[in-house]
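Reading a protein record of the kind used here takes only a little practice. The integers have meaning only within a learned vocabulary of local backbone shapes. With that in mind, consider the following protein and its fold in token form:
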Amino acid sequence: MCKRKISRRTFLGEASCAAIGSTAFLSSFLNLGMINTLAARPHIISNTNDYKAMVCILLAGGADTYNVLVPTESSEYDDYVATRGSLALDKNATNPAQLIDLDYDDNGRTFAVHAGMTKVRDMFDNNNLSFISNIGTLIEPIANKADYQSGTKKIPLGLYSHSDQIMQWQTSVPQSRSAVGVGGRMADILQDMNTIPQVSMNISLAGKNRFQTGKEYNEYSISNNTTSANIGYDGLPSWWSNSGFLNDIKNGVINNAVEQEYNNIFERTMSSLTEQTAGSIEVFQKAFGNIVPLATEFSDTNLSKDLKKIAETISVKSYLGANRQIFFVTIGGWDHHDNVILNQNAMLPVVSNALSEFNDALTEIGMQNDVVTFTISDFARTLTTNGNGSDHAWGGNQMIMGGPVNGGQIFGNYPSLALDGNDLNLSGRGRILPTTSVDEFYAELALWFGVSPNDLDYILPNLCNFYSSSNCTVPPAGDYSPIGMFS
């Protein structure tokens, strides 16, 4: 065995940055937030035998969602064309089509989706999917452009910045750079609904992420090619050993490590978490060994493969002791400062097909009514073109899918896309002020998921700003529905 002597500083640096998560050895164990213990908080568990899962899909880079969902009523479409210019999609094009109509009419307001999203159109028309319109990060409500410019309203930190906005969508704390995410806080509250403590409620197919980082519980990372045969220790960080050791040697090292009495608190924490992860691996090995191949066919794309692995994991939830699970997936490449049309023609069908395949797989395993899938993204894009692309903006459109969702709806308020006389347009580029907050969206998801109204203020620290009741931190159960995504 080749050993090397390293300093404590080097140890911490390499351990923090090591690519640990690919097959889950010590999955994210060095998040120091996990060392802290969340103080006990009261919450409601109505039925520990019911199962619910949510799947968060991050469209990383800031998707141009005003070419995903497009108004087709005559005057609104005219505004869309006039503002978007060369980025506008032709609703009359047929060979090939650029837009396909949704079966939707809200007092004369009609909409279409990008022609590459036929599967999304079908799921929308079949009430399996809905859109949330003009949603974005907010600290408090901002009514219009004048309100925004008044200087009296709190504005998200680093607005239009990738790093800040992608973080804030995951933490829902736009006023600071928080290390703890929405899914992580949910796990802190609800982890005890699951029956195997060493298996995290949060499972990531995108490695370390902010959304699933809690104060006590973090994500457990797998990949879309993880099986019972390879979920072991082949993700060892570089400081532990050279790659290529036999598994039994690795296991011996780990067993010695977890049995050793450490004096240093950091080393004791590492030992404990290593032992927990070793236990998790054993549980996952057994669970994945019981996966029955799906009849549903998935496309050969990373997103489809990720969602297939999630469906397989849900199918063996009983082996994982899971009554609640949160999954996280990333598909990148949405920062389209150039070639918006060509890029979306290639990428939107990937998302549409993967969502449809996942919906079919959940139906196959009888879980379609127990899983909610939704998209998030850094921000939307400017309505106007920069020549051949679009730039960073704010409020945009997202999708939510699943049996529990009120399908076939466009929630929120789809904004006017006119530049002139538009109270929500913050600049000549067409940066739209969001009218639905991320907090409102996550609040409904959290209540559906089983979070008590008493705990919403921990999950979403800014929620009171969007709730009109004087007792906003404890809204009545079932009485918080500003969006109406669930029945």
User: Anything to note?
Assistant: The domain at 17-466 is CATH 3.40.720 (Alkaline Phosphatase, subunit A). Residues 228 and 285 are 4 Å apart (CA to CA). The chain is about 30% helix and 10% strand. The mean pLDDT is 84.
